[in-house]
Design brief:
Layout lengths: L1 H21 L38 H14 L2 E2 L20 E2 L1 H12 L10 E8 L18 E8 L18
Antiparallel strand pairs: 1-2, 3-4
Helix pairs in contact: 2-3
Length: 175
């Protein structure tokens, strides 16, 4: 009886070996190609407003002064690869060429002078007030964390009448 079970079990093992060796083999399968996308960004250039050197979102004579002071202290120079933007107090590379040159100061001066262009004419005027949920104005427009409030925004079209469209359904002259 023991021999019969041994033959039976032995036969099962040999069949299993045959099936596994004749079945699928381990193969390597290549995945899709991977590409690294890199950008050549300068840590010394403001990509939002290039002429805003001190990052206050306003182009002012202070921005020119920072560039001129940096030029006076170290002269025209190239920004090194190892310089990081976290220790910088001013983004001095105005034109994005990875160098500090007098052209950076001139670019800001040209922006401030407007290069002979008319100043931008506003199309709309905004005003707002902050109130609590019952409509009572909040003094100083300061809101506490977790406080529920409303912001009421008013928008007025301040374009000259000649610039408005007759086909605008919001225009009172529209029929």
């Amino acid at each position: 009886m023991k021999k019969k079970f041994g033959k039976l079990l032995g036969g099962m093992n040999s069949g299993r070996r045959q099936r596994s060796s004749s079945g699928r083999r381990l193969r390597l399968e290549s995945l899709e190609a991977r590409r690294l996308l890199a950008a050549d960004l300068s840590a010394n250039h403001n990509y939002f407003i290039a002429e805003d050197v001190n990052m206050d979102f306003v182009v002012s004579p202070m921005d020119v002064l920072l560039v001129i002071n940096a030029l006076n202290q170290g002269g025209a120079r190239s920004f090194g690869e190892g310089e990081s933007g976290d220790r910088l107090t001013a983004l001095l590379d105005v034109n994005g060429d990875k160098m500090l040159t007098p052209m950076d100061a001139l670019t800001i001066i040209n922006r401030l002078n407007g290069e002979g262009e008319d100043p931008a004419v506003p199309y709309v005027a905004f005003s707002y007030n902050v109130t609590d949920t019952s409509g009572i104005p909040i003094v100083g427009s300061s809101v506490q964390v977790g406080q529920t409030f409303r912001i009421n925004v008013s928008v007025q079209d301040v374009r000259p009448a000649s610039a408005r469209s007759i086909t605008d359904p919001n225009d009172p002259r529209y029929n």
